[in-house]
Structures are given as C-alpha cells and as structure tokens.
Specification:
two-stranded parallel sheet; single chain; mainly alpha
Length: 266
C-alpha cells in the first residue's frame, strides 16, 4: 500500500547480498505469503512517525485495515510494522478510538517481529480494567500471535504487584494444544515428511514445539517477572500448570539474561 514510500529505504545489503537477504528473512520467519522488503526498524519508525502526524493519519490506518482484509499477500511485513507503529504514534484521538484501531490490527499479527516491535512501543496502553479486559480476550484466543500479543503487552505494560497474579492466572489458563499456529514444530514437521515438504505445502516451520511463539512469549514474560519479582515468580512456578517445555524455555531465558543469570529460576 505504501511500497513507493518504503522502497527507497530498503537496505542495500538486502538488495545486493543473497546471503544477507536470506538470513534477514530467516530471522523474521514470516509465514508464507507475507513479503519482506528488507527495511531496518529505525527507518520503519521514521515512516510511521511521519505518517502519524499527517491530517489524514486516521484514514491511512483505515486503508491498512481495508487492505489487510484481502489476505496476507496484500501487505508486506514492513507495511504491517508501519501500521502498528502508527497506532502507537498517532495523537489527539479519543482512547476508545485508538483501542478500536488496535483491535483491528492485532488479528493481522503473524510474526514475532511485528508483535515484539509494536507491543513495547504502546506506552499509551494504560493500566485500566478496559485495557486488561482486551488482553484477557487475547489470552483466551486460539490464535498464536494474539496470545503472544497479550503476553508481551502484559510484560511491557502491566507487570506490577497488582497485575502479576492476574498474569500468572492467565498463564495457568492457557491450553497450548488448542492454540492454532501457521507454523509446525519439529515433531509435526517430521510427521509431515520433513521441512521441504512442509514449506512446499505452504506452511511455516518453527524451531520449537507448536505454538512455539506463544510458548516462548510466556517464557520471556516469566524471565522478566523473575528479574522484577523473584520471590513471587518462584512461588508461582512451584504450583503452576505450565507444561515442562515452557518451563525449560523460561529457565533458558533466565540463564541468558544478565539480570537473572545469577538468580535461581525455581
């Protein structure tokens, strides 16, 4: 939709070096059908900020919404990023209108990169019961990146002594077996005949058990909780209902973080 605006900002290495281009795409791990143009995040932020201050900013966001209805092929990864960032940067609109924009955007998230770039920047998403109710609805979703969105938003904007028990409650209520993912995990890939066969069939591949990005989101949030509220987090984990693989991912994240590498995770 805004390809002409983004095209001059495409990384030269992405244009000219195949190894770099493939590595960039591999890290993003987009689902089939989502094009990647190859911009860097600072450039996408600049574009989003410039569009967000225009008088027709709300119309541009509405155009993104309409375009997204056509399917994943309609918007590139970078356009999706700019759309989400615009919601964070746009000013002088009622809170309810902004929440409505967000609720139309979230179902379009289909990669960890979009989720984790847009969520931390949503400082406008205040600690209100209305906002928490929205996150609870996404926690209860059967879609991988809606669950991850709720998890990352909770970690970034709701992690305090009041909301921490609520976050833990939502984690215990998660049923990972019912969360649908566009990616197949290692065991599913093996059962389907290998990664090449899976990719040729139009599915994506994750490096861990599906829904990998929802599981890793919970692990990341728990590692952050350990850094901020170690006693509360360890107390929760003594009786949590989280599956063993999520606990292993959490322990790994805790060991990797400079804030918690010397702290016992359990």
């Amino acid at each position: 939709m805004i390809e002409k605006l983004l095209e001059p900002l495409v990384s030269e290495r992405f244009r000219n070096e195949e190894k770099y281009r493939l590595g960039h795409i591999r890290i993003l791990n987009p689902l089939p059908g989502r094009a990647v143009m190859g911009l860097h995040i600072p450039d996408m932020k600049k574009v989003a900020k410039s569009l967000a201050v225009r008088e027709d900013a709300a119309r541009i966001i509405s155009d993104f919404e309409k375009e997204a209805e056509k399917g994943r092929e309609a918007l590139s990864h970078e356009e999706l990023m700019v759309w989400g960032m615009m919601i964070n940067f746009i000013r002088c609109i009622p809170a309810e209108e902004k929440l409505a924009m967000l609720e139309k955007f979230v179902p379009q998230i289909d990669s960890w990169g979009v989720c984790d770039s847009v969520s931390p920047g949503a400082s406008w998403f205040r600690k209100t019961e209305r906002a928490w109710d929205i996150l609870c609805r996404y926690f209860a979703s059967d879609r991988e990146f809606e669950v991850r969105f709720a998890t990352v938003m909770s970690m970034c904007h709701f992690m305090d002594e009041r909301y921490l028990p609520r976050i833990f409650f939502q984690f215990d209520a998660l049923n990972f077996s019912r969360i649908q993912s566009g990616y197949l995990g290692p065991s599913e890939v093996k059962a389907a005949g290998g990664p090449e066969k899976v990719l040729s069939s139009g599915r994506g591949v994750a490096i861990g058990e599906s829904p990998y990005y929802a599981r890793m989101g919970v692990a990341w949030c728990l590692a952050t909780a350990l850094a901020k509220f170690p006693d509360d987090t360890r107390g929760y984990l003594r009786h949590s209902r989280l599956p063993e693989d999520v606990l292993k991912l959490y322990a790994r994240k805790a060991r990797e973080s400079f804030r918690t590498r010397a702290v016992s995770p359990f």
